[in-house]
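Input sequence (475 aa), recorded before submission:
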Amino acid sequence: MWFPRLASDRALRVCPVDGPFALVARQGNAERLYCVNEAARRAGLDRGMGLADALAFCPDLISRPATPEQDARFLTALRRWALRWCPWVGLEPPDGLVLDITGAAHLWGGEAAMLADMRARAAAMGLALRLGSGDTRGAAWAYAHYGEGKQPLETLPAAALRLDADTCTALERMGLRRIGDLAGAPRAPLARRFGPGLLMRLDQALGQMSEPLTPAPEPVHYGVRLSLPEPIGLLGDVMAGTERLLGALCMKLHAQEAGARRLVLTLRRVDQGSQQVELRLAAPMRDAARILPLFERGLAEVDAGFGIDQIRLEATLVEPLATQQMGLGAAPQQGDRLSDLITRIGTRIGLENVLRFLPADSHIPERSFLIAPAAHSAPETGWRSTPPRPLRLFAPEPIAANGSAPPARFHWRRMVLHTARAIGPERIAPEWWLEDEGWRHGLRDYWRIETRQGRRLWLFHTPQNPGWFVQGEFA
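Predicted structure, token format:
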């Protein structure tokens, strides 16, 4: 199955365009046509043409940037679509599929009826499709690209052997333009001139060398299901069923060295209604004993109705989780306990509301930390210990004081405080490359003030615009 306009057909399915259309990609220093639709081809445009030349030929051309990664995902989706005809379907990047229809054609009334069904379904999807059927993979590729099986293989051009452009040009100069010419030519001179690759492609197309078809592996599905002979409704019974499913799911996760970050438990009732319990985890997990208690709160709120007859558990978000070496009877690590705690709190208030402080690379007090969701960040140990910073940091609060030396007596938050000890100053300059309204006035001289009343405050003085402020309090 060859989709000659796969990229443009995919783009036009998302946003249709009337008239000439092309996808453009940068090659070197020039913008060139990556794929064109049928209207652009009729206007004389083709892949590889420069965009400026294409616009000169066709001023009405509509172009968009090419996205090869989206084309690759679309081809993968088409591979799953092609499984309707046979179970052995492989990718032929960048725009083709290869199918082994041995033993499957009779299910569609014969090979001709199967190919007709393929063409009809592709046309209904707006996809240009060319088909080639042959006894070998190489022959099928040749027919799809150069004739669709309407002529003998030997009459097709040498390019139908999947050869590069330079090799095809060299063969034409030698008078070897067709596959039949190559098959009748002496093999030793061809091998010396072009290497073993040419003869390998020839033998594969003619069936003298095997070319196995390896279908693309199906993605791992992290889902398990339990059908019950009798409906259940008690919390203990539902937890027992969930425990069985968790064991099977965690074994699959362990085999793939993965951990679940989001689990969805679907409970189907006898009246065909269903309820879902979603569990989002603070860290990838595959330990059933740790995950099971986390479901209890959600399951307690489930309305079983007249009973539950099917339970389905699926890991909808999976992340890599390498196997760890642990001793016999080892207890959960400290990080595991913290992840379990964050998960328990997150089930009540939401994981995005459980936050942690992280250090930031800045000497400005307000920028020396970041706040991130604890479930999606790891704790860091890069906090600077010197010079010390207050445990509580708040917006600067002005106080009445004069001079550049710390005040001996000042009012703060309706309290009269007396300075017992002052340590400083520590001068901090603004980061001039960043716009910050709070630091537009320039330098700050910070002091650690210990008061006779027991308060340990962090004050700063602005020498360029004299004034005193309190910004933090030490524990």
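Checked by second reader. The chain has four domains: 1-84+102-129, 132-219, 223-322+333-348, 392-473.
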